[in-house]
Design goal:
Layout (H helix, E strand, L loop, with lengths): L11 H41 L8
Length: 60
Amino acid sequence: MRKLKGPVKETAKQKRERKQEFAKMRQQIHTVVLPTCAFIFMLICFYVYVKTRPTTMQYA
């Protein structure tokens, strides 16, 4: 039997599974990655705020 040159065509089932996995990854981006990035950004902002706020001077 001869071997065909080029990539193997994917079946309809494989294509459907690949699309489902892609949709699942896209949903994970919205439910896991974005909130995590937002939390890290808030921590950085809080740290910068605390380090740069003016300190009260006490005169003795």
